[in-house]
Amino acid sequence: MKYLLLIYQNHSAFEALTQDELDQVFRDVDELMAELTASGEFVDGQGLAHPSNAKSVRVRDGVPAVTDGPFIEAKEQLAGFTIVECETPERAVEIAARWPDARYWGLEVRPLMGGSGTEM
Amino acid sequence: MTTPAVAEDLLRELAPQVLGALVRRYGNFDASEDAVQEALLAAATQWPHEGVPDNPRGWLITVASRRLTDQLRSDGARRRREDTTFAMLPADARYSAATDQDRHGDRDDRLTLLFLCCHPELSPPSQIALTLRAVGGLTTAEVARAFLVPEATMAQRISRAKQRIKVAGATFDVPPEPERGDRLRVVLHVLYLVFNEGYTATSGSQLQRGDLTAEAIRLARSVHRLLPDDGEVAGLLALMLLTDARRPARTRPDGSLVPLTEQDRSLWDPRPIAEGVELVTRTMASAPIGPYQLQAAIAAIHDEAPTADDTDWPQILALYQLLGRIAPNPMVTLNHAVALAMVRGPEAGLEHLATLDADDRLAEHHRLDAVRAHLLEMAGDEDAARAAYRSAARRTTSLPEQRYLEGRAARLVDPAAPE
Fold first, then answer.
1. pLDDT over threshold 60, residue B332
2. Cα Rg of chain A (Å, integer)
3. Residue B118: which of B15, B190, B30, B169 has the closest Cα?
4. pLDDT band, residue B392 (cuts 50/70/90)
5. Omega prior to B306 cis, within 30 of 0
6. Could B259 and A114 be called an inter-chain contact, meaning their C-beta atoms sit closer than 8 Å?
7. Measured in Å, how far apart are chain A's first and last C-alpha atoms?
8. In this complex, do B202 and A115 lie within 8 Å of one another by their Cβ atoms?
9. What is the Cα–Cα distance from A94 to A99, expressed in whole angstroms?
10. B163 at the A interface (CB within 8 A)?
C-alpha cells in the first residue's frame, strides 16, 4: 500500500531554529531518506516552495479566478510530501514519526487510492 | 535492430533456465544474473543476423558461463579457484542435452530458482519482485511498471532481496524434505499474489498489469508440469484459470466493476473454464484436499452456471463450510456468510457476519461493510444498507470499488427525502 506523508511546517518557527537544530533536521532527513531508498520503500517526494508563491484557482461560471494564497495566514503550511510504499499502516506511521518535522510540527499519513479492485 | 518476436519469446523462456543452470554451477546469484543478461544481450544482437543457433539454450549457457568466468577471472583473489572449477567441468556438461534426452536437470533448476526467490526470509513484495525478475524473465523496468513504482525503487528492492538471501546463507538447493512442503506453500502464495495483483487491476494506465495474470498462470503451469501430483499446485492453476476466464466481463469499458451476478456470461472465456474444471475435478478425485482446490471448485461452480440464478448455492455453501474448517480466515467467513444468505436467507448470512465484528483483522475493513450492505439490501432494510454501503465506500482505498459502493448507496436513496 502506498502512503502520502504530508509534512507540515510552521514557517516562522522554522526560521527561529538555531543552526545546530537545523543541521540536525537535515541530517535526520538525509539519514531517513537513505534508509527508505535502500529498503525500496521510497516512491517519490518533493519539497514545496514558500507558500507566498502559492496561487488559488477557482472556476466560477466558467471563469477562472486566480488569487494569491490565501493560505498565507495559516500558521502551519504544507511544506512537502513523501510517498512511501510499505507493508503495513503501522510502518507508514513509524516513518512519519521519524521525520524531524514531526518533532516540531506534524505530519499527516494518508493512504493513496488505487485503480484496482475486486468485484463484490 | 529489433529482435524478431519469436526470438524474444524464446529468450524469455530460456533466461530462467540459463540462470538456474549458472546459479547451480557457480552458486553466485548476482554475478550469474549479470552474466545471463550479457548472454541475452549477445543473443539479441547476434541471432537476428546469424540466425538462431540449433541449441539456443546451450549457446546461452556457454556464452553466459564465459562471461561469468571472465568476470570472476578479473577478481584476483578468486581467480585460481574459479578457473579450476570451470576447467574441471567436462566440456559436454556446458551444452544442454539433445531434445530426445531426458531434460530432468533443467526442470529441477527452475523449481529450485523459484524456491530461492520465495525464500521465507524475504518480505512478500520482495519475493514477488525477485520471482518476476529471475523466474518470469521480466526486466526491472517491467516489474516496476507493473507495481507502479519508479524503476530505481524496484531495482533497490530486488538488490536488497538478493542481499538478504545471501545474508540468510541460502544455498541453491531444493529445500530438504521436512521443510519442502512449507516452502512450496510460500511459492504458491507468491504466485497467487502475483495473479491477484494483475487480476484486481482494471483499466487505463493499469492495463499493463494484465500481463501479471498471464505471467502468474505461466509460472503456475510450469510448477504444475514439474510437480504434476501435487494437488494444491493443480488447485492453484485451476483457480487462476477459472478466475481469469471471467475477466472480460468483470469491468465495463469505463473501468467500473461489474459484480458477478450482473456479468454478461457470454463474455466468459470457455477454453480456460473447460481446462480449469477438468483440472480441479481430476485433482480432487485423487489428491488430498486443500484450500486452493476448494477455492477452484467454488470458482468452477460459478463458471458452470449459465445464469446467476442457476448457481448451485447449496454446493458452494458446503464447500465454504469445508474451507472454513481446514483453512479458516476472515475472508472465508465473509464469503461463507454470502453463501448462507443465498441458501437460507439474508438473516442467516447477517448472523454469520456478526461473528466477525470482534475480529480485529476485519472489523475496520471495507469488505465487511460491503457484504453487510448487500445482505441488508437483500433483507429489505434499505436505510441500514445505505449506511453500510457509505461506510464501505469511505474505507476502501480502491477507486473502482468506491465508485461501485457509492453507486449502490445512491440507488437506495430514500424516495421521501427532499432532493
1. yes
2. 17
3. B190
4. very high
5. no
6. no
7. 20
8. yes
9. 9
10. no
* Residue B87: pLDDT band with limits 50, 70, 90: low
Listing DSSP states for B139-176 in one string gives -HHHHHHHTTS-HHHHHHHHHHHHHHHHHTT--SSPPP
The tens digit of pLDDT for each residue in B259-286 reads: 899 999 999 999 999 999 999 999 999 9
Model pLDDT for residues B168-184, shown as the tens digit of each residue: 877 777 787 778 888 89
Closest residue by Cα to residue B162 from B150, B154, B173, B151: B154
- pLDDT greater than 70 at residue B90: no
Query: Within chain A, what is the greatest distance between any pair of CA atoms?
Result: 56
Give CA–CA dist B23/B114, Å, rounded.
12
CB < 8 Å to A120, chain B: 257, 259, 367, 370-371, 374, 401, 404-405
| B295 vs B353: CA distance, rounded Å | 20
Closest-CA residue to B280 (of B226, B238, B229, B314): B238
* Cβ-Cβ contacts under 8 Å, B154 against chain A: 40
Instruction: Say how far apart CA B158 and CA B37 lie, in whole Å.
Output: 15
Side-chain half-sphere exposure of B227, counting CA atoms within 13 A? 23
Listed residue (B59, B61, B60, B79) closest to B69, CA to CA = B79
> Could you give the CA distance from residue B373 to residue B353 in angstroms, rounded to a whole number?
11
Q: How far is CA B124 from CA A87, B118, B131, B153, in A?
A: 9, 8, 10, 16
Phi and psi, residue A58, nearest 5°:
-130, 135
Distance between CA B111 and CA B114 in Å, rounded?
5
